[in-house]
Write a structure and sequence with these properties.
Pfam families: GntP_permease. With 484 residues, the protein is mainly alpha-helical. The chain contains 22 helices and 2 strands. A hairpin with a 2-residue loop joins strand 1 and strand 2.
């Protein structure tokens, strides 16, 4: 760990000397101090706009980006250019992955694939194993869905399980949240992780492999183990409105004419969900262990590219979750059309975060932060986690936190090896899971769906997210020490 810290400090010193190709004076100046103040001012501005004035995160990040550019002394004509350039870059790289992931998730949901997974695993493990089964289900569902979408789709199943098995709702509700949150924070192709990967120039496949290694123990700790401690100590009474809305077949918002005539098989559902993950991991294995050469390697490299692997999975899902289970072309088209509206908010936030990041880079703020961190000898992994945790605590959004923190940390990652870059991306995702509380919209969703008080939600939702952040960062540090 001492060696890792030393190398991180050296890297920070290197990052302090350059940013976007510009040389920066090694001596600390008053302007450097002002640039650090600009970071604080811009973060405070974003927090006030989102939390107090209830301005949408897109507008808040846009205003924050303009504030960074103006206060740092950027030329007026370049202020808008910095934001639009960053927005275009990040949307082009990450936006298509968000769209394809949303399509895959919607096809699985509309086909009844989620119901098939839950039913099969519940039958296999019995009542005592339900928290473990639900954690696994949530992780599988979360691989191809955003947290909020996956949570809304899992709520009816959680309530149905609790009702049918006469089971305490938190014994299945907390594991559902834990599984989704774990893969959302650590496993691509989720937007936050992808932004972090892009910012630090990490390999998607390698980050995926390390993310899964860290995610498994985290999901166990935050899911079944924390649930066993928490549920007897927190009272939860499911609201009658939620039971009425979500324990019927029509509660998910789909009409009968969009429901296929039969469910997809469990094996087919699992294979389709895991297909893009398998393709990306295969590419990572070839890059790391040189399993293939020549034409075979070229093919595997192409298929393992995130955009291609997700596109392949979507094309397979059109059959396995659509035509193969009796859906008509009109029904499949209806599912595809419903895929896009829920992700509009995610796309604009990610884009605005990219613009904010570019403003930081163009203003020289990143170099000042790197120089300050180098003088304080803060290891890069810890710095990434701290910045992301601060942004999550302040803004309430894990995606916003990751995007903003990646913009600050990204320029410090030049020269990192593939392993260190992947771990740095995971440290950003880990920090962005920290301390979800009352400024997080999903906090209130969890409270209302499962009939909790604010105090009860803090003792379950907030504690679980804090535990996830700390245990995942510990896993990143263990990997960093083990891999040198």
């Amino acid at each position: 760990m001492m060696a890792a810290s030393a190398s991180s400090s050296a890297l920070l010193a290197q990052a302090a000397s350059t940013t976007t190709g510009k040389a920066v004076a090694t001596a600390w100046t008053g302007h450097d101090t002002w640039l650090l103040a600009v970071v604080g001012i811009s973060i405070a501005l974003v927090v006030v706009l989102i939390s107090w004035l209830k301005v949408h995160a897109f507008l808040a990040l846009m205003v924050g980006a303009f504030a960074v550019s103006l206060l740092s002394g950027e030329a007026i004509q370049k202020v808008a250019d910095s934001f639009t350039t960053g927005l275009g870059n990040i949307t082009g790289k990450v936006g298509i992955l968000i769209i394809l992931g949303a399509v895959l998730g919607r096809l699985m949901a509309d086909s009844g694939g989620i119901d098939q997974i839950v039913t099969t695993l519940t039958r296999a493990v019995g009542p005592r194993g339900l928290p473990w089964a639900v954690t696994l289900v949530a992780c599988l569902v979360g691989l191809s869905m955003f947290f909020e979408v996956g949570f809304v789709l899992l709520v009816p199943l959680v309530l149905q399980i609790a009702k049918r098995a006469d089971y305490p709702v938190l014994r299945v509700g907390i594991p559902a949240m834990a599984g989704l949150a774990t893969v959302h924070a650590l496993v691509p192709p989720h937007p936050g992780v992808l932004v972090a990967i892009t910012a630090v120039h990490a390999s998607v496949g390698l980050t995926l492999v390390y993310g899964l290694i860290v995610a498994v123990p985290c999901a166990i700790v935050v899911g079944p183990l924390f649930t066993a401690y928490a549920w007897p100590r927190v009272e939860a009474v499911i609201p009658e409105a939620a039971l009425a809305a979500f324990t019927t077949d029509t509660a998910r918002g789909e009409s009968d004419d969009t429901t296929p005539r039969r469910l997809p098989r469990f094996s087919v559902t699992i294979a389709t969900v895991l297909l893009p993950i398998a393709l990306m991991m295969l590419k990572a294995g070839c890059d790391t262990f040189h399993w293939a050469h020549g034409t075979l390697y070229t093919v595997l490299e192409f298929l393992g590219t995130p955009v291609v692997s997700l596109l392949v999975a979507v094309l397979v899902a059109l059959g396995s979750f659509g035509y193969a289970v009796g859906a008509s072309r009109q029904q499949v088209q209806a599912s595809l059309s419903r895929s896009f509206p829920p992700i509009a908010g995610v796309l604009v936030i990610v884009g605005a975060g990219g613009g904010y990041s570019q403003a930081l880079a163009d203003s020289g703020v990143n170099a000042a932060i790197g120089q300050a961190a180098g003088r304080l000898h803060i290891p890069l992994l810890l710095l990434a986690w701290l910045v992301a945790a601060l942004m999550r605590t302040a803004t309430g959004s894990g995606t916003v936190a990751t995007v903003a923190a990646a913009g600050i940390i990204g320029p410090m990652a030049h020269g990192l090896g593939s392993t260190q870059a992947a771990l740095l991306a995971l440290a950003l995702g880990s920090g962005a899971a920290f301390l979800g509380h009352v400024n997080d919209a999903s906090f209130w969703m969890f409270k209302e769906y499962f009939g909790l008080s604010v105090g009860g939600t803090l003792r379950t939702w907030t504690v679980a997210h804090t535990l996830l952040s700390l245990t995942s960062f510990a896993g990143v540090l263990v990997l960093n020490a083990a891999l040198g």
